[in-house]
């Protein structure tokens, strides 16, 4: 059978899983594809470091030119993470005539326009299924399974660390700090978890989902993003009493007014399909005109789940190489000249949804009346209100649910009220 050379950049967890799958599934891949993807070089920082998978020493190199200069390597698999040097290596690989498979959400979200433009110029592929939801075939479903449909919205859990923490808080009653420590001990959170719990990781993934689902290029820095560190055990309990579960959601919507993207903790009705997503699992609910709602659920990270997506991308590119399809459609299924149009997002201030408000009312006459008056002046109606037992100083935590209102109107009301308020959005009904 014909051999097809593969070069791998990075041999961390996902790289090790990719090497393992290509070895363990070699016969099955050959039977289905008629070609044997063969690893020829693996770029590493340290050749002597202990690995999670056994690799022949002669495959390891610290010199990128040994990968890019090998004429037998047709596909370069970038699994280094981060923006640099990954961006430079991807561009160099394309210019050397290689196709690229990557699971690097950061480099594509931040420098994707440059990378996809170069891929279109040289007629090479860039595929990235593993960059968004681990082993879930989400991007392929959006790009191919829904190619005949028009996607109007998506909403989901795309960061397993945040979901693990919020799920632990829900199940055990723990506070955020204790739940985070538990996630770190279990290996689900990094020593520096800020990218996950701050929402940045989910914003990167949402930018790529918007690219594939809506065909638009978005700077992830412009996506309205809120983390979960301000969610307290009290909020979890209050939400449960009101019939909700708190989840960190990535939400994208497209209508006649444009595209809106946001990441934030959200009150989800207890009977909603996303409310039952536990632990570090991911799930994305997609809405399209013809099909309606469809759900994509599974392990969103980890060595082997992500390696499944990476190897599937390698096989997809290999099929195109064998078929002579050296120029591919762009990432959203459009031709390269019309793919990833830069857009300005709809302002968060225009988003209309109900809100959860939590604040501590001091033991001062007229406080609640003043808050209610501020809300009323900005068109905010209260649907429901609850109060905990007052503390020794007479103050009490107050919880309000509003009727749906424009985000900007509520923000203006809270500024006028001049009280520290924790605000969480409700999933649109």
From TrEMBL:
Domain (ACT) ranges: 356-429
Pathway info: Amino-acid biosynthesis; L-methionine biosynthesis via de novo pathway; L-homoserine from L-aspartate: step 3/3; Amino-acid biosynthesis; L-threonine biosynthesis; L-threonine from L-aspartate: step 3/5
This protein's UniProt keywords: Amino-acid biosynthesis, Methionine biosynthesis, NADP, Oxidoreductase, Threonine biosynthesis
InterPro entries (alphabetical): ACT-like_dom_sf, ACT_dom, Asp/hSer_DH_NAD-bd, HDH, HDH_cat, HDH_CS, NAD(P)-bd_dom_sf
EC annotation from Swiss-Prot or TrEMBL: 1.1.1.3
Reaction catalysis annotation: L-homoserine + NADP(+) = L-aspartate 4-semialdehyde + NADPH + H(+)
Family: Belongs to the homoserine dehydrogenase family.
NCBIfam families per the UniProt record, alphabetical: PRK06349.1
Name of the protein: Homoserine dehydrogenase
UniProt source species: Nannocystis bainbridge
Lineage: Bacteria, Pseudomonadati, Myxococcota, Polyangia, Nannocystales
């Amino acid at each position: 059978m014909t051999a097809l050379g593969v070069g791998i950049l990075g041999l961390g967890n996902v790289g090790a899983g990719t090497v393992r799958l290509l070895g363990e599934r070699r016969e099955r891949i050959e039977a289905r594809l008629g070609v044997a993807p063969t690893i020829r070089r693996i770029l590493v920082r340290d050749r002597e470091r202990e690995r999670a998978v056994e690799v022949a020493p002669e495959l390891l190199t610290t010199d990128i030119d040994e990968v890019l200069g090998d004429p037998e390597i047709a596909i370069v698999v970038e699994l280094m993470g981060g923006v640099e040097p990954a961006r430079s290596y991807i561009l160099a690989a394309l210019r050397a005539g290689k196709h690229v498979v990557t699971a690097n959400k950061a480099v594509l979200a931040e420098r994707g326009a440059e990378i996809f433009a170069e891929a279109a110029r040289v007629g090479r592929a860039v595929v990235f299924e593993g960059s968004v939801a681990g082993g879930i075939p989400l991007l392929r479903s959006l790009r191919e399974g829904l190619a005949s449909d028009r996607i109007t919205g998506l909403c989901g859990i795309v960061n397993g660390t945040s979901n693990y923490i919020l799920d632990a808080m829900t199940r055990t009653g723990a506070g955020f700090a204790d739940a985070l420590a538990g996630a770190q001990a279990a290996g689900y959170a990094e020593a520096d978890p800020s990218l996950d719990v701050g929402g940045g990781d989910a914003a990167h993934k949402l930018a790529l989902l918007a690219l594939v689902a809506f065909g638009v290029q978005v700077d992830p820095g412009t996506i309205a993003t809120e983390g979960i560190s301000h969610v307290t055990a009290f909020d979890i309990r209050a939400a449960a009493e009101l019939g909700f579960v708190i989840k960190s959601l990535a939400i994208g919507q497209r209508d006649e007014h444009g595209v809106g993207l946001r990441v934030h903790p959200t009150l989800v009705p207890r009977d909603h399909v996303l409310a039952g997503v536990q632990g570090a699992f991911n799930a994305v609910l997609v809405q399209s005109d013809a099909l309606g709602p469809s759900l994509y659920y599974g392990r969103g990270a980890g060595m082997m789940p992500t390696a499944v997506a990476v190897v599937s991308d390698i096989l997809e590119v290999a099929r195109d190489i064998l078929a002579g399809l050296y120029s591919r459609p762009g990432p959203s299924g459009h031709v390269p000249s019309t793919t990833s149009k830069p857009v300005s997002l709809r302002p968060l201030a225009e988003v209309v949804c109900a809100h959860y408000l939590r604040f501590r009312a001091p033991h001062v006459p007229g406080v609640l009346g003043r808050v209610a008056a501020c809300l009323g002046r900005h068109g905010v109606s209260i649907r429901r209100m609850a109060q905990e037992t007052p503390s020794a100083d007479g103050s009490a935590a107050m919880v309000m649910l509003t009727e749906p209102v424009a985000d900007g109107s509520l923000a203006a009301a809270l500024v006028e009220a001049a009280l520290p308020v924790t605000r969480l959005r409700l999933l649109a009904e």
